[in-house]
Amino acid sequence: MSTTLLAIETSCDETAAAIVVDGKEIKSNIIYSQIELHKLYGGVVPEIASRKHVEKINQVIRAAIEEAQVTWDDIDGIAVTYGPGLVGPLLVGVSAAKTLAFAKGKPIVGVHHIEGHIAANYIENDELKPPFMCMVASGGHSHLVYVKDYGEFEIVGRTRDDAAGEAFDKVARAIGLGYPGGPKIDKLSKEGNPSAIAFPRSYMEDAPYDFSFSGLKSAVLNYLNSCEMKGIEINRADVAASFQQAVIDVLTDNSVRAAKDFGCTKLALAGGVASNSSLRQSLIDRCAKESIEFYYPSPVYCTDNAAMIGVAGYHEFIKGTRHDLNLNAVPNLKIGER
Ligand code: KG4
Ligand code: ZN
Question: Whole-model pTM?
């Protein structure tokens, strides 16, 4: 017998719903991105995001059900992101899930957003099963996670300050590219020289799998200021490419080191930054040299979406994990917490 879940994701600025069968088959994956709305402000405005989620959530859920051509009789449960993320946006998804669960008599399984990002790797990679090492790099997180089993995680490294995506967004703003910066830096970097400017790479001696991106961000800002003061014309493509290479070198080195140290023959990449084409290539090349199998999701499953929540939710659902109508948004939810 198969298990069909309606999945809902509203932790940041994407209103998303999906129908997922057996944690694998994505019957529909509807994403309403609010990016255009937040661009005006150079970043996500939580209050605006919450209001837009309220406006869009029913529409997006309806579209997911229609596109999948299922009825409520086919749906076995509802998977919903309940943390971490912005509290207002999270509450919209959680309230929608609870309302539908009550009205339709369906069970709920609450899902951790980062566990969702990790689970995105299962969608297109049949052979990927735990244990493996996963580098999660998004706008809010940069974590190295040892995935011991489905639903069993150990964080082995984390950022001390900015997340990788946050650094992309801040540097993009500084060179006038606008929000969100990741895809724009990715594109502009292709026209630049990654060795043009020697930006620093931070490695922590006492914590070999941790990251720090704020020093790199400051180095870029200092470089831009000093060029301006000296009247030197800035080559934005070279700045973008050199910054991006500094991030890629650290993410690649630390994740491959962690995989080897933990005896993992498999390494996966997840989160919005995972859609970066040069980062993928760097890890493809390094993993080939180190005989590590490397996995990454298609770009649509890297940035926020509900399909990944349906996949992570499925693995909890079949274990019997259920949440009741007291489920609340938990903005600082820890990975592995139920
Ligand atoms: O996972 P995500 O959609 O949302 C969070 O959970 O944070 O990640 C969004 C982040 C943003 O910081 C965005 O700039 C970054 O992912 N991003 C990228 C690329 N596409 C999105 N960073 C680098 N290269 C990209 N191609
Ligand atoms: Zn995310």
Answer: 0.96
